[in-house]
Design goal:
By secondary structure, the chain is of the alpha/beta class. It is 40% helix and 21% strand. Strands 2-1-3-4-5 form a five-stranded parallel beta sheet, sandwiched between helices. The protein has a four-stranded antiparallel beta sheet with strand order 6-7-8-9, with helices on one face. Strand 7 and strand 8 form a beta hairpin. Helix 2 runs parallel beside helix 3 and helix 6 packs across helix 8. The longest helix is centred in the middle third of the chain and has 14 residues. The radius of gyration is 19 Å and the shape is elongated. The two termini are 29 Å apart.
Length: 224
C-alpha cells in the first residue's frame, strides 16, 4: 500500500515515513502544500496523511481540491490545534478522520487501518484467489491450507495482485502502488519479486495462479 505524507515538520515526517516503511507501506513525503496537492492528485495513493498548517497551500484547501478532482482516497488530517472549528473545516472539506498532535505512532497506525477497512476497496475480512487466501487481521497467507512465508515487500506485492485479481497489471502500475517515487525505474525489481512470489505461491501446485502476459504485465487468476 502506498501512503502520501504532506507535513512541513521534516523531523516528524521522517519519523512517520520510517515507521510506516517498517510496516511495509510505500511512502512519499512532501513538505509543502503545492507539491503535496500535485502529488495527491497525480499519483495513486491508498491513504493521504495531511497536515493542516502548510507553507504555500494549507491542508484544508488541498483536501478540498483533491475531492473536487474526484479522488476518494482516505484522508487523515494532522493538526496541532484542537479547536472544534478547525476539525469541522477539515471534515467539511472532505477529510475522513482527524488526529491532534502530539499523537502516538500506534494510534496513527490504528486510524490508518480503520480508514482502509471503511474504504470500499479494502472492505472484507479476507482475500481469496482459488485456494490462495490472505487474512488481513493476522497477515497470514495460505494456499490449500498451507502457510506461505513472505517478506514484507512480497506480501505488499501479493496483496496488490489479489486486490486486482483477474486484472492485468503493468509494471508501472505495480511500481506506483508497491514502491515509492524514489524507486529506480531502470531496475528489474518487479520481475525479481514476481519470480520470488511465483516460487512461493505456485511451486508444487498444478494450478498456477501468477501469470506473465507478454508485453502487457502480470495477472493473478485461476487457470481456465
Amino acid at each position: 500500500m502506498r501512503v502520501l505524507i504532506v507535513e512541513d515538520d521534516e523531523k516528524l515526517a521522517g519519523v512517520l515515513k520510517k515507521g510506516l516503511e517498517e510496516e511495509q507501506y510505500a511512502v512519499d513525503v512532501s513538505h509543502d502544500g503545492i507539491d503535496g496537492a500535485h502529488w495527491a492528485v497525480e499519483n495513486p495513493y491508498d491513504v493521504i496523511i495531511l497536515d493542516v498548517m502548510l507553507p504555500q497551500k494549507d491542508g484544508v484547501r488541498i483536501c478540498r481540491e483533491v475531492r473536487e478532482a474526484g479522488i476518494h482516497t482516505p484522508i487523515l488530517m494532522l493538526t496541532a490545534r484542537d479547536g472544534m472549528e478547525d476539525k469541522i473545516k477539515g471534515l467539511d472539506a472532505g477529510a475522513d478522520d482527524y488526529i491532534t498532535k502530539p499523537f502516538s505512532f500506534e494510534e496513527l497506525l490504528a486510524r490508518i487501518r480503520a480508514l482502509l477497512r471503511r474504504s470500499q476497496y479494502y472492505r472484507g475480512k479476507s482475500l481469496m484467489v482459488g485456494d490462495l487466501m490472505r487474512d488481513p487481521s493476522s497477515r497470514k497467507v495460505t494456499r490449500a491450507g498451507r502457510e506461505i512465508s513472505l517478506t514484507g515487500k512480497e506480501y505488499a506485492l501479493l496483496e496488490y495482485l489479489m486486490r486486482n485479481a483477474r486484472r492485468v497489471l503493468t509494471e508501472t502500475q505495480i511500481i506506483e502502488h508497491v514502491w515509492d517515487m524514489n524507486h529506480d525505474s531502470m531496475a528489474n525489481t518487479v520481475h525479481v519479486y514476481i519470480h520470488h512470489l511465483r516460487n512461493k505461491i505456485d511451486r508444487g501446485f498444478e494450478n498456477k495462479l501468477l501469470h506473465t502476459i507478454r508485453g502487457m504485465g502480470f495477472v493473478l487468476k485461476e487457470q481456465e
